Amino acid sequence: MNTAIILAQGQGSKLWPLGSTRPKAAIPIGGSPLLRQQIASLEAAGVGSILVVANARFAAHLRFLAAGKGSHPQGAAGMLAVPPSFRPTASARRAASPNGTAGERAHRALVEVLSFDPPQGTAPALRLALEQVEDEHVLVLYGDVLLDPATLPRLLEAQAEDPSSTFVLAVPLHPLEDPTMYLAVRVREGRVEEMIAHPRHSITHRLGGAFVFPRAVIQPYLAAHPGYVPAVPSGGMPPMGEADLAQCLQMMVEDGLTVRAVEPSAFALDVDRPWDILIANHLWLDLLGQSLDHDVIHPTARISERAEVNGHLVVGENAVIGPGAILEGNAWIDCDAVVTHGAIVGPNTYIGRRCVVRDDAWIGEHTSLGPLCKIGHCAEIHGVMFGRSTVMHYCNVWGVLGEASDVGAGTAFGTLRFDDQPQAHRVKGRWETPRHASDATFIGDFCRTGVNAIFLPGSKVGAYSAIGPGVVVDGDIPEHSLLLLKQEVERREWGPEKYGW
Which whole-number Å values give the CA distances from 269 to 46, 147, 313, 370, in the listed order? Predict the structure, then answer.
């Protein structure tokens, strides 16, 4: 497969409050933007040309990420991209990256970002992209899907055995999953029998966000797309003007064409809602941890004899693991990061470039810290921090903290409701109850809190907001908000005379 198209034109409204200032393809997974994860997987699969379709607002951002230049981190999976003077063994490279490439990919794909406005859906975006492509077959990825490294090869192998058919990645639905949340398919003996959007029942799989199309087959259906998705259950209400590619699949099935389903090797996660960021990071770091069976320490890194290390480490250039640090399991400590002075780091954790974790801070398992974060003075962090954020002085953070946010001393994130029940969230006007991480707090980019702010389980705060000292946050706080606590203070005379003087 020579050409792949990544459809990254979506607005990210369901990802609020984390999608208002960045495209979903820029969400960090294990320290690296999702788009970079996809490009690395496509390059490892031998794809030579990648076309990214973005909206005009975020095209420059995605172009920067696609180029892989500047100071943006490579993340846990790319930490072995080191100078020629240090060449890890083949065993070490396999340990650090499930792709077996460890940042030293066999080739670099040609990546181009195409801007397309206004966003009208994945079908028009693909139709535009195909005008730039001459290949007979094309691999299509949604820009918000995280795949395990073995899934794309599995999809491409199936297509090579039957080049005339269309192939879709289909993820089996868990019995407890709500099918009404998905663009879903009914699969029988590896063949798609029906595509139906947000069904109530009678489906087996959800679409996994990856497709292989014969160009001559898909183009007529893209041209004939009605501009919305009529393939809904009785009483369903599809929005007009949202031309999803899934409708083309249903039209193909109705015309008797063969659409085959391939299941993922391990996982295919649509990073569509804020709690999906936590789930994606957990899955990715856990996968990397299972593959890590060898220490990879850069020659310039320093590890104190007074540090306690369990599991395996990947430690980048000039990183420091100082006296008193405790690493409870596998960890990735990126370039110039410092973990020292009683800091405790849980297993399968990524500490980003130039982070500082010190002074009895605690970093929970499967946590990912973006670049230049500062954690210290008995702060507790569990979840994902995007980068350049500060959490100090007896704070407790559980959830996702956006870029360049400052958490005031004594701030606490609630982790459990009194009734032990999951917390419902409102997503674009619809109440949803996540199966995982429903009680986490989600704070957008460029926010700050005053001392002793409290966030009840499931709270969300939009970007560019400030939460004043002592405020108790419950529910969703819009962007550009300042919350201040009102109090009534009564002053009375007091002094020695009250004690008999």
Answer: 22, 7, 27, 21
Residues 228 and 322 in one domain: no
pLDDT of residue 101: 41
Q: Are 273 and 434 in contact (CB under 8 A)?
A: yes
pLDDT tens column, 326-345: 999 999 999 999 999 999 99
Q: How far, in Å, CA of 500 to CA of 79, rounded?
A: 72
Question: Which of 210, 237, 270 is at the close of a domain?
Answer: 270
Answer yes or no: do 66 and 188 share one domain: yes
* Single-letter code of the amino acid located at 86: F
Residue numbers in the chain where pLDDT is lower than 70: 69-73, 80-107
333 and 254 co-located in one domain: no
Residue 223 lies in a domain: yes
208 & 245 share domain? yes
Task: Please check whether residues 129 and 253 belong to one and the same domain.
Answer: yes
Instruction: Quote the CA–CA distance of 278 and 272 in Å, as a whole number.
Output: 11
Bridge partner residues of 483 (DSSP): 467
Res 72: pLDDT: 55
Taking only the tens place, the pLDDT of each residue in 212-246 is 999 999 999 999 999 999 999 999 999 898 899 99
Burial 342-374 (b: 16+ CB within 10 A, else e): bbbbbbbbbbbbbbbbbbebbbbbbbbbbbbbb
Q: Where are the beta strands (DSSP E) in 423-500?
A: 425-427, 430-432, 441-443, 448-449, 454-455, 460-461, 466-467, 472-473, 476-477, 482-483
The predicted pLDDT at position 75 comes to 87
Segment holding 277, helix H or strand E: helix 274-291
186 and 283 co-located in one domain: no
- When divided into structural domains, the chain yields a total of 2
Give the structural domain span for 310.
Answer: 274-483
